[in-house]
Design a protein that fits this description.
CATH architecture of one domain: Up-down Bundle
Helix content: 25-40%
Number of strands: 21
Distance between the termini: 63 Å
Shape: globular
Oligomer: single chain
CATH superfamily of one domain: Fumarate reductase/succinate dehydrogenase flavoprotein-like, C-terminal domain
Largest sheet: 8 strands, mixed
Length: 600
């Protein structure tokens, strides 16, 4: 006999924030600054917002000081457009790049301890793809707090959220969006320790659930980044955008996949092959080790393919070397001490004395839930979903297009978090208070959880998870082909069927780890299917999406991919135009914002 699932209680608030990382809490603080009396509930999958994945960001946040004598916002805009492989939206690029320094100042005024120069100015370091004068030489543009910039941002926005009285619910997930007459009025949530479903009715709901690359064997993401927000949108019948664009960071630590931040190369670290040759000059003669991440990741894999890589016996993984031995002791001790400690702890090497083994690691989802430049979620190219907003990595406005430059993620979450919060403030002026639950509330969530609880198969969660990770790494990774993608899609169909028959150890809802993990696994398989289908449909190579059978960029695909999946494996595609407003305005060097050739 099946277990009867019920909603234990219904809560009400003005704003529900699903995901209490940097983007969600910056949106919350932006709302509180203008209307502090509003009731805001923020959900975190973790025990505390301070365990958010934002805290793991190391290297910096790109921003141009208007008083900088040599750097300019338009250089940053160009780098972002070129870095995206001409697939980002120029209205969003302009907005975010022009707002960046304001947010640096906001963070500093609210307590963030940016690293400083000897003259007392905010210190900056170079990052891949960031250059001066439309590509002439590297730019020092990334503001940072040693090698724990994300932690500084989270400390700041969390402190401000607490000061304004934001309510936090820990160890819970949103399992279903509540839509009534096309308007979002909140969500059904599941609280893990108590094993209870709650409905939260809200005038406005902000999706800020972060990334999703845990479907790959080697990933820099925390274990909770399982694509829950994307699956939530797909289950609600909403589209997602450009999921085929997965970024692999070129320098993950062999073994755990933990990021060896681009800050290391910003400080002068060098990639070397098995012969200790610095190989990046062959692939990016000007930018070298500070080329964009997609280019370097492919270069690393190419070195391995051509026999110039190494193999780590202890971790059973191919790799190249990252050389930090020549960096000054002061850099090791003051600027990159946390990353160096990770190499010592998890890989057993001392970066001051030893070469460090690194390999590409799945890192970032450039696509996401489609929004306009104000963070309003779109149901199609012309329409928004009233009451529903999204920001951060789960959203696609799109600042990054099909490839993100390092440090633009922290920039986006802090700027678009603010923009989204300010848009919510405007929306709340006329928003009506939800009166009751929609008649079909909870049917999606309860159908899912009932299936998991009633499964009686002999399939093992760990086996399916590991098969998924190996499959995505091999077939839908850095290099893709039609053959590999077709094979991946067929395998994903089989994995989905198997996943539906994994038996839980207990049917109790309280602290049921099996149930929680099976739900996450199904979310990962759902998102993986859209990634693979989108990669098969896009018959070109652009940014983080590289097809060996279609190695060139094609103007035929000058658009964002919109994908809907009303039923698993039934994927339908639409198109959203790429915004070309900087180019169309015919301003300074506008010709560089056309579909230009991408060289470094």
């Amino acid at each position: 006999m099946g277990k009867t699932l019920t909603i234990d209680s219904t809560l009400r608030c003005d704003v529900l924030v699903i995901g209490a990382g940097g983007a969600g809490l910056r949106a919350a603080t932006a709302i509180c600054e203008q209307i502090p009396a509003k009731k805001i509930i923020a959900l975190t999958k973790l025990t505390s917002p301070q365990k958010s994945h934002t805290t793991t960001a190391q290297g910096g946040m790109a921003a141009v000081d208007p008083k900088d004598p040599i750097d300019r916002p338009i250089f940053h805009m160009f780098d972002t457009w070129k870095g995206s492989d001409c697939s980002a939206d120029q209205n969003v690029i302009k907005k975010v790049c022009e707002m960046g320094w304001e947010e640096v100042v906001w963070l500093e005024k609210h307590g963030m301890h940016f690293s400083r120069t000897e003259e007392g100015r905010i210190a900056k370091r170079p990052f891949g793809g960031h250059m001066l004068n439309f590509g002439d030489t590297k730019a020092f543009r990334a503001c940072y707090e040693a090698d724990r910039t994300g932690k500084g941002i989270m400390d700041t926005v969390w402190s401000e959220s607490l000061r304004y009285g934001v309510s936090f619910f820990g160890q819970c997930v949103a399992t279903e969006l509540l839509l009534k007459d096309g308007t979002c009025i909140g969500a059904v949530i599941f609280r893990y320790p108590e094993g209870k479903f709650l409905a939260i009715l809200a005038k406005a709901t902000i999706m800020a659930t972060g990334g999703n690359t845990r479907m790959y064997q080697v990933s820099s993401n925390c274990r909770g980044n399982t694509g829950d927000g994307l699956a939530l949108a797909l289950n609600a019948g909403l589209p997602v955008m450009a999921l085929e664009a997965v970024q692999f960071h070129p320098t993950g630590m062999v073994g755990p996949g933990i990021l060896a931040s681009e800050a290391l190369r910003g400080e002068g670290a060098i990639l070397r092959n098995k012969d200790e040759e610095p190989f990046m000059e062959r692939y990016a003669p000007t930018a070298k080790d500070l080329a964009p991440r997609d280019l370097i990741s492919r270069a690393v894999v190419q070195e391995m393919r051509e026999g110039r890589g190494l193999f780590h016996e202890g971790h059973n993984a191919p790799h190249v070397w990252l050389d930090l031995r020549h960096l000054p002791k002061e850099v090791h001790e003051k600027k990159i001490q946390e990353v160096c400690s990770f190499f010592k702890r998890f890989v057993g090497v001392d970066p001051e004395k030893d070469l460090c083994p690194v390999t590409p690691t799945a890192h970032y989802q450039m696509g996401g839930i489609p929004t306009n430049e104000f963070g309003e979620v779109q149901s199609d190219t012309q329409s928004i979903v009233p009451g529903l907003f999204a920001c951060g990595e789960v959203a696609a406005a799109s600042l990054h297009g099909l490839n993100r430059l390092g440090t633009n993620s922290l920039l986006e979450l802090i700027t678009m978090g603010r923009v989204t919060g300010e848009r919510v403030v405007e929306y709340l002026k006329d928003a009506k208070k939800p009166e009751d639950l929609p008649p079909d509330a909870e049917h999606i969530a309860f159908n899912q959880f009932s299936t998991y609880l009633n499964a009686r198969g002999k399939e093992k969660y760990g086996q399916i998870r590991d098969t998924l990770r190996n499959l995505m790494m091999e077939k839908v990774g850095i290099f893709r082909t039609e053959e590999s993608l077709v094979e991946a899609i067929e395998s994903l169909r089989e994995l989905k069927e198997r996943a539906m028959h994994v038996a839980v150890g207990t049917t109790s809802l309280k602290a049921n780890q099996d149930l929680w993990q099976i739900w996450e696994l199904n979310n990962l398989i759902t998102v993986s299917m859209v990634i693979a289908q989108g990669a098969l449909m896009r018959q070109e190579s652009r940014g983080g999406h590289f097809r060996e059978d279609y190695p060139e960029r094609s103007n035929e695909f000058n658009y964002h991919t919109l994908a809907s999946m009303p039923e698993f494996d039934t994927v339908t595609f639409g198109k959203r135009p790429i915004d070309m407003s900087i180019f169309e305005a015919k301003g300074e060097r506008f010709e560089l914002f056309d579909y230009i050739k991408r060289e470094y």
